[in-house]
Write a structure and sequence with these properties.
The protein has 361 residues and is an alpha+beta fold. Helices cover 25% and strands 30% of the residues. It is built from 8 helices and 20 strands. Helix 1 runs parallel beside helix 5, helix 1 packs across helix 8 and helix 2 packs across helix 8. The longest helix has 14 residues. It starts with a strand and ends in an 18-residue tail after the last helix.
Length: 361
């Protein structure tokens, strides 16, 4: 006979772990993780930072509402974010600054002279900038472990090597079969499967919402320049690169979004080469060595907003997916919102309406 739970959560990355921590104590919870360990994919490969402008104005409420939790529990370290622009991008940069300033975000316009004071060796074409002083690094591993620990302490059960093969709604419960033949049942099935979210929906007899995984490339460089400890997260306004210090090294991305099937993502040589080429067009810091490279998948709904809520097509099927690259910086507020929706509690700090799955059906 299969074990029965109140909530079965597919995926034990930051999304599934945060929900399990919030639901533990309100019912029985099982976390079904397809890999050997939780957080193997997007969560474990993130160069995460908390910055209010990331994801756009409709993601900002989740980011803003997550700050106190992340800061009070010591998961944030001050970094600052520096966006670089060319002369022809002046109008777009001004609109960016105005849009987020109106939301209450601290964004300071910078001249070329002010950029030179913040970053040495800047190439001539980067003449304008915007600085966000409140940007922080996030200790992703510690945050993930906190929620896994809280979930376990509350009685949630973590099952690894548990890849879903089928899910059928019958008799008021979801009956789940894994690819190794094990089975579980649950009143509510939570789809927190990241890049596999649409696949989980299909295995449950539901049509997809169009959540598309995209590959993002990262690499670690040793450069012929002392990397300042206080170097801000540095981004191109055109979305073609970002880099930040990691000890005495640099973490660099070409900010790529390459459509991918759900998989164990690996970096392509051409994308790594593109990242280095773009970096060398920004600053005069010759690259000594490529020390490490990796890739992860970021998953977006068609409108690039997350998907949180019950699916109107099937009883007890809950979406918690489509978090793109902002899933970690918004995780505390998203988890609070998700738990409230799952338990039928009053709305909290963030309005769930923009993130409802119904908008995509």
């Amino acid at each position: 006979m299969s074990q029965h739970f109140d909530f079965a959560i597919v995926g034990a990355g930051i999304a599934g772990a945060s929900l399990a921590a919030g639901l533990a104590g309100h019912g029985s919870v099982v976390l079904l993780e397809a890999e050997d360990r939780p957080g193997y994919h997007a969560t474990g490969r993130s160069a995460a930072f908390w910055t209010e402008s990331y994801g756009g104005p409709l993601v900002y409420p989740l980011t803003d509402a997550s700050f106190d939790f992340l800061n009070d529990k010591g998961f944030l370290a001050p970094r600052g974010a520096l966006t670089l622009a060319r002369a022809e991008e002046a109008a777009g940069l001004a609109a960016f600054i105005a849009e987020f300033t109106a939301l209450g975000v601290a964004v300071q316009p910078l001249t070329r002279a002010e950029l030179d004071a913040r970053i040495e060796g800047l190439k001539d074409e980067w003449v304008l900038g915007a600085y966000e002083p409140d940007c922080c690094d996030i200790d992703v591993a510690a945050l993930h472990q906190l929620w896994l620990g809280q979930a376990a302490a509350g009685g949630a059960e973590l099952v690894c090597r548990a890849r879903l093969a089928a899910a059928v709604r019958q008799g008021g419960a979801w009956h789940l079969t894994l690819d190794d033949g094990r089975s579980f049942s649950a009143a509510v099935l939570v789809n927190a499967a990241g890049a596999w979210a649409d696949e989980v929906a299909a295995l449950s007899g539901l049509g997809p919402l169009g959540i598309q995984p995209y590959r993002r490339t990262m690499c670690q460089l040793r450069v012929c320049h002392a990397v300042p400890e206080d170097l801000p997260l540095t981004l191109g306004f055109d979305g073609s690169y970002y880099f930040r210090p990691e000890g005495e090294r640099l973490w660099l991305s070409p900010h790529d979004e390459i459509p991918s099937a759900p998989c164990d993502a690996a970096p392509e040589e051409i994308d790594v080469a593109m990242a280095i080429d773009r970096f060398e067009r920004v600053v005069d810091w010759p690259v000594e060595a490529l020390e490490h490279k990796w890739a992860g998948l970021r998953s977006f709904a068609p409108d690039r907003l997350p998907v949180y809520g019950f699916d109107p097509r099937a009883d007890g099927f809950f979406w918690f997916a489509g978090q793109g690259g902002f899933g970690i910086q918004t995780a505390p507020a998203a988890a609070d919102l998700g738990v409230r929706l799952l338990l039928g509690q009053p709305e909290g700090a963030v309005d769930p309406a923009p993130y409802s799955p119904g908008r995509l059906i």
